[in-house]
């Protein structure tokens, strides 16, 4: 029987936990969390299915949950990617997918393609490709796809995938991969070949990034979270050939990187999708320890319970957790490279409210989204997803701390009340004028903890404010920063920004850090927008009886939230807050997005030697 050694920072120095838990042993394991400090050196054996060599998500936890719900044991999509240099007309498989821009679809006077690859394929198909594209009004716009079953090629079908006017960034090519996955799913295709109609004078680096983005999009587009459905279909797609991008170890390494990061995004999605009656703070902590177990050569885990957090004077965090029957778990994973010097110390902090009722300021009325408040731990999902990817990629020269103050915001006689004053671990006092502004209270102590680890740069991610969603819409995350005053922004500009920005709002006093994260976001295909940190707004956050209140007025709510968090970061530390309240959830698909993980991993990679 496989065993795990758990070292404790109390008189209990070791315990042996079996790799496969019965219902009684699961009870013993949960009791371990009641010790003041739990440091996992060899973490608990994984419970469920394989994700790049290990198992994540507690699919077979042998414990009773509210509603008796247990997620099904479903494998993630496993797609074999290969890079090949062959004549695409001779490629044999189910679907040959051709990515085309609107320019590629240009036709001559005889209504034949001008693009050389499309002209060649059309000739093999007797002109039917150009005819069908005209009849179906396929012009190469993003989101368009055309699938034809015609004799003349090595493949059974040919598909045209629209890329828009031009395709020059990661976002466009990842969308292309997702569109290809959708086409393959509809056609029940087992194998697909992917080629772009035009690569032009593309550099080798650009080809590598394009192939990686397409591969990532294909994996994420194939994946469906069916763990909580009584009947689910397994994905059919098994292999994808990347054609026309060259071959060799460099490309293979890039495709492997895409696979590792995509598996981390899927893990993050599953965390957010899991309901609060399954994913409690304790289970979130277990998932974190399993990541450390899978990559124990580079990751260690420390889990602190309420008593240990009390010793660290985390009154702000514990005030939020006080009402819940599910105790808080403070999660700290630490990545250290297997060898070589450490040149940078970074920290990623994620909001970890596994459910947010609003507390005594309970969420009520239309638009309160209380039924979706399982996603209030989306920041922690991004951080733990990044930890999984970093554990797989193992970047040298950088130390990374992954920190989550996990708890629930509930209502009971022991809970925090409006008007209460809590004291954070840096000694600052906070008058709680709204119990539904709880995320910033947990982040306050988490940020102080991160600074105490010696981090030189910190990024926190949180589903923090509805104000950010109102400002930027559901597709944009925001940078909070010393940028310009929002008063200078006209309403027309504001409306324009709200239309095209994609899901992430960012705030930071550091131009250097802003530039770094923007570059990482562009490389990963996730869109950010830098928001102002207007210091004059702090006036609304002052309290008559404490150092500050936890909410200001309705106007500028996202900005005042960032200004609040700034009070808990050392002045010598470069810090950024990313508000993912909009992009954490895809309302149309009713599922999590995994937003932020790819940017975080790319940012850590930038700091790697």
Task: Please describe the structure with a list of short key phrases separated by commas or semicolons.
eleven-stranded mixed β-sheet, alpha/beta, 24 strands, 609 residues, six-stranded mixed β-sheet
What proportion of the residues form beta strands (DSSP E)? 15-25%
**How far is the first residue's CA from the last residue's CA?**
40 Å
- The helix fraction, in percent, is 25-40%
Q: What overall form do the CA principal axes indicate?
A: elongated
Name the poorly predicted regions: 1-54, 58-64, 467-476, 478-503
Q: How many E strands? A: 24
Helical/strand content category: alpha/beta
The total of helices stands at 16
Write down the Rg. 25 Å
- Average predicted confidence as pLDDT: 85
Largest sheet: 11 strands, mixed
Notes on the structure:
Belongs to the peptidase M17 family. This is Cytosol aminopeptidase domain-containing protein. Keywords: Aminopeptidase, Hydrolase, Protease, Signal. By secondary structure, this protein is α/β, with parallel strands linked by helices. The protein is built from 16 helices and 24 strands. The strands form five sheets. Strands 2, 4, 11, 12, 13, 14, 17, 18, 19, 20 and 22 form an eleven-stranded mixed beta sheet that branches. A six-stranded mixed beta sheet has the order 5-10-9-6-8-7, with helices on both faces. A three-stranded mixed beta sheet has the order 15-16-21. Helix 4 (170-187) packs across helix 5 (204-222), helix 7 (281-294) packs parallel to helix 10 (378-393) and helix 9 runs antiparallel to helix 11. The two termini are 40 Å apart. Mean pLDDT is 85; it is low at 1-54, 58-64, 467-476 and 478-503.
């Amino acid at each position: 029987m496989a065993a795990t050694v758990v070292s404790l920072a109390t008189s209990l120095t070791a315990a042996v936990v079996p790799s496969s838990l019965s219902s009684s042993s699961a009870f013993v394991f949960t009791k371990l969390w009641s010790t003041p400090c739990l440091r996992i050196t060899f973490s608990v054996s994984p419970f469920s299915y394989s994700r790049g060599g290990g198992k994540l998500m507690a699919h077979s936890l042998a414990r009773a949950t509210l509603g008796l719900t247990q997620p099904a044991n479903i494998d993630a999509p496993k797609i074999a990617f290969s890079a090949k240099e062959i004549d695409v007309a001779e490629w044999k498989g189910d679907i040959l997918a051709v990515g085309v821009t609107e320019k590629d679809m240009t036709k001559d006077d005889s209504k034949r393609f001008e693009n050389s690859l499309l002209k060649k394929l059309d000739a093999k198909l007797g002109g039917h490709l150009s005819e069908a594209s005209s009849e179906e009004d396929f012009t190469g716009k993003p989101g368009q796809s055309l699938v034809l079953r015609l004799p003349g090629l090595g493949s059974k079908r040919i598909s045209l995938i629209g890329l828009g006017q031009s395709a020059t960034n990661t976002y466009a090519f990842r969308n292309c991969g997702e569109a290809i996955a959708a086409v393959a799913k509809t056609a029940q295709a087992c194998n697909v070949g992917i080629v772009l109609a035009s690569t032009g004078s593309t550099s080798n680096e650009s080809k590598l990034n394009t192939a990686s983005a397409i591969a990532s999009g294909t994996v994420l587009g194939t994946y469906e979270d069916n763990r909580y459905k009584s009947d689910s279909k397994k994905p059919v797609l098994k292999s994808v050939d990347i054609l026309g991008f060259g071959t060799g170890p460099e490309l293979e390494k890039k495709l492997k990187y895409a696979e590792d990061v995509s598996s981390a995004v899927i893990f993050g999605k599953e965390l957010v999708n899991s309901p609060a009656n399954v994913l409690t703070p304790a289970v979130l902590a277990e998932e974190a320890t399993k990541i450390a177990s899978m990559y124990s050569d580079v990751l260690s885990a420390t889990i602190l319970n309420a008593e240990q957090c009390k010793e660290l004077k985390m009154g702000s965090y514990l005030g939020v957790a006080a009402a819940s029957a599910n105790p808080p778990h403070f999660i700290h994973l630490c990545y250290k490279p297997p060898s070589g010097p450490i040149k940078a110390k970074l920290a990623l902090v994620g909001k970890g409210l596994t459910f947010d009722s609003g507390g005594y300021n309970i969420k009520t009325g239309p638009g309160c989204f209380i039924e979706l408040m399982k996603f209030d731990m989306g920041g922690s999902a991004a951080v733990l997803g990044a930890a999984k990817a970093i554990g797989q990629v193992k970047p040298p020269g950088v130390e990374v701390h992954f920190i989550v103050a996990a708890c629930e915001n509930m209502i009971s006689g022991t809970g925090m009340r409006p008007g209460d004053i809590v004291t954070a671990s840096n000694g600052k006092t906070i008058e709680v004028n709204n119990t539904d502004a709880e995320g910033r209270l947990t982040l306050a102590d988490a940020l102080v903890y991160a600074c105490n680890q010696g981090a030189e740069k910190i990024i926190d991610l949180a589903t923090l404010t509805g104000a950010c969603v109102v400002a930027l819409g559901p597709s944009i995350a925001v940078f909070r920063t010393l940028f310009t005053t929002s008063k200078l922004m006209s309403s027309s500009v504001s409306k324009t920004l709200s239309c095209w920005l994609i899901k992430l709002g960012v705030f930071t006093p550091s131009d250097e850090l802003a530039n770094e994260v923007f570059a990482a976001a562009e490389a990963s295909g996730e869109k950010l927008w830098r928001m102002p940190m207007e210091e004059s707004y702090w006036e609304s956050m002052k309290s008559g009886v404490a150092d500050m209140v936890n909410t200001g007025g309705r106007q500028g709510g996202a900005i005042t939230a960032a200004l609040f968090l700034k009070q808990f970061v050392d002045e010598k530390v470069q810090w950024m807050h990313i508000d993912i309240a909009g992009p954490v959830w895809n309302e149309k698909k009713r599922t999590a997005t995994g937003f932020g993980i790819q940017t975080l991993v790319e940012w850590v990679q930038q700091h790697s030697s």
